[in-house]
Amino acid sequence: MNILITGATGFIGNAILLALVQQGHKVTACSRNPEKLLSQSEHLTRLQIDFETTNQAKHWLPHFKNIDAVINCVGIIAETKQQSFAQLHTNAPIALFTAAAQMGVKKIIQISALGADENAQSAYHLSKRAADDFLRGLDVAWWVLQPSLVYGGRSQSMALFHALAALPVQVLPDGGGQWLQPIHIDDLVAVVCQCLEPSANARQALALVGPAPIRYADLLFNLRLRLGKASAKTINLPQNWLLCLASLGKFLDLPILAKDNIPMLYRNNIGDPAPITAILGRPPLSIHQRLFAKPASSAERWHAQLYFLKPLLPLLIAIVWLWSGITSLFFYPHEASYELLAVTGVTGNVAPLVLYGLALMDIGLGLATLARYRLQALLNLQMAIVLVYTIVISVALPEFWLHPFGPILKNLPFLIVLWICAIISRPTL
After folding, report:
1. Looking at residue 149, what DSSP letter applies?
2. Does the pLDDT of residue 383 top 60, yes or no?
3. What is the per-residue DSSP string for 394-428?
């Protein structure tokens, strides 16, 4: 078949893409960054499409020549300044489905979410449901697949749960009695492939869940064991306190900690495994066998323990620059600063300009880091500035290397911190 798939570089989309290519389908893979697709198959066509701007059918019509099926895998767990639920979950998919129907596409598969039903309340679920309902009204063979928490490989949600499990104290929402029913990515991919079969019963919504539910507290407990950690003390927090903590998600650049996700957790995320069992011809894979029974790799342990340090590094770096500039302006004696500048050859009327200019530059770097403005370029600039500072002071004031407080020596670990922050802040696939 000729299949067009959106969200092809995402966790779910990429897994489906690889399976389709392996089965010999010709796939048009849509993504904002198609160059990130690692597959080199001759059956793969890369197409650069941005869901943030494709909100009309005319944007899609040119891409549906000879397309037999469409699979929409685009989704975000939380809104950002650039990405909204309304656009990515509703407007763009409706435009996609409309164009597909107009061009005679035979099958449309929508990867929705468990909970996007008549009881939906969160903006996430409501936006998914709007696109689902629109698809149900089209005269095509459609499937609305509603997965629970999906784990395996690059799952962002499971990465968060691993990080929560790695904390020295387990924070449980009202005791952690909420129910989840995670599904392995391989099962989700297998269901999609079954839907593409000619004999598949179309026009149905399917809850994609694992074989049995698990309590949130038990999920964290088993993940902690998998990470090789002993049992930890627990703290029970009520929902309103958790909402306050989750509000820090945007500030820390961790959108997955959005406030909307807390009520979604309390709602429970479970379903009947019978339909997926019938489609697969076997029970869905058990999280106890596919995840809990396998010790975490070194990379997984590192990632879990550093997960919450990632958003703290830019904050720490910003504080260093801000305090450096503020101290130079208001606390450190200006005469002492002028004496140091004189040693480097900066004297006279130029000295105040350099002093105030460098102090304001430090404050500007701190504020820009807090705002995460073009963070990669900003961190590279900061590394260059620290290197220049270090070289100039080493030449003009070499005695500072022997200072008991190590004012120059401390630049070395700061450079490493900047380097690490630049590495872990790079966008992933």
Report:
1. S
2. yes
3. HHH-GGGGG-TT-TTTTHHHHHHHHHHHHHHTS--
pLDDT value of position 195: 96
The torsion angles phi and psi of 11, rounded to 5 degrees, stand at -55, -55
**pLDDT value, residue 264:** 83
162, 167, 170 from 229: Cα distances, Å: 11, 10, 12
99 contacts 64 by C-beta, under 8 angstroms: yes
Provide the domain count of the chain. Answer: 2
Q: At a CB cut-off of 8 Å and minimum separation 6, what does 114 contact? A: 146, 147, 148, 207, 208, 209, 269, 270, 271
- Left (φ > 0), alpha (ψ -120 to 50) or beta: where does 71 sit? beta
In a domain, 29, yes or no: yes
Number of Cβ atoms within 10 Å of the Cβ of 9: 20
d(CA 385, CA 269): 49
Give the C-alpha separation, 144 to 374, whole Å: 38
Strand order in the sheet with 44-48: 44-48, 26-31, 2-6, 69-72, 107-111, 141-147, 204-208
Q: In terms of Cα–Cα distance, which of 107, 113, 109 is closest to 75?
A: 113
| Pairing between β-strand 69-72 and β-strand 107-111 as defined by DSSP bridges | parallel
Question: How large is the C-alpha radius of gyration of the chain?
Answer: 26
Round to whole Å and give the CA distance between 60 and 97.
9
pLDDT reading at 385 higher than 60: yes
- From residue 234, give the alpha-carbon distance in Å to each of 237, 257, 259, 425: 10, 19, 21, 31
Q: Is residue 318 part of a domain?
A: yes
Please report whether residue 294 resides in a domain. no
174 found inside a domain = no
**Domain termination residue (choose one: 129, 147, 165):** 147
Does the pLDDT of residue 186 top 90, yes or no? Answer: yes
Q: How many helices (H) and strands (E) does the chain have?
A: 18, 13
CA distance 305 to 159: 10
**For residues 74 and 93, is the Cβ–Cβ distance under 8 A?**
yes
What domain range includes position 334? 312-424
Domain endpoint, select from 116, 147, 178: 147
Is the four-CA dihedral 345, 322, 314, 403 of positive or negative sign? positive
